[in-house]
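It is worth pausing here to work through a concrete case rather than discussing structure prediction in the abstract. The textbook approach is simple: state the sequence, then state the predicted structure, then interpret. We follow exactly that order.
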Amino acid sequence: MDSPAVKITHVIFDVDGLIIDTERVYTECLEEICAEYGCEFTWEIKSQQMGKKEREAAQVLIDALKIPMTVDEYVHKLKARLEVKLPSVPLMPGAEKLIRHLHNNNIPIALASGSDGWGFKRKTAGHKELFALFHHTVLSSDDPDVKHGKPAPDCFLVAAKRFGDDPNPAEILVFEDAPNGAEAGVAAGMHVVWVPDPRADRTVLQDRVDQTLDSLEQFRPERFGLPAYSESV
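Step two, the predicted structure:
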C-alpha cells in the first residue's frame, strides 16, 4: 500500500539478500547438502528459513525434509561451504548508494540480521568500509538480548534501543527482503519497505508493509521524510 506522509529519523537494514547477494549463495549450499540426502531444497523451505536464527533455520529444513541430520551437523556442513563462497559475494543493486546517502546526511543507520558473527565477518569481508558506516550491528544468532528470531520483533527492538537516543519505533524505517523479516518489522511497530525475492508471494504482506519494491534502486527517500538524492547522484 502507499505510505502516508511520515518522518523517519532512524533506519535499520537487514543484511542477507538485501545489502549483499548472499541468499543465492545460501541456496546453492543448501541445495548441495539436501542432494546428499536425496532431497530437494525448495523455495517454500527457504522462505520459512529467511531471517531466522541459524539454528532455528536449520531445524526448519530438518523438520520439513525429515533429514536424518542434527542441527550441529547442518551447521558444520553449511559453514564448510560458506567458508569458500561468502568472501566474494557482491552487493545488491542500489544498496551502497542508499547506505552512503543516509550516512552522508547524518541519518542513524543500523543492521539487524539473523546471522552470527562467524558468517557476518566472512560475508562482509569484501565490503568492510561500507559496513563500517553503520552505527551498530545486531546479530540475532549470537546476541543474548535477542531471545527470538524473526518474525518475532526482538532484533529490531534491540537494534532501536542501541541507537542510544531512544527513537520512537513509529519513526524507524526497516528494510527487509525476507517475509519473516518484514513481519518482524511490522510487529516492532516500525515502517517497513519490503524488497522480496521474485519468487515470494507479495500478496501476503501487501496491506501491512509501507512499500514493496523490486530493488533498492526504486526507493525514493523523500517519501519517508528523508533527504532526497541529489541530482548528481
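Step three, interpretation. The beta strands are 10-13, 109-113, 136-139, 172-176, 191-194, 211-212. The chain has nine helices and six strands.
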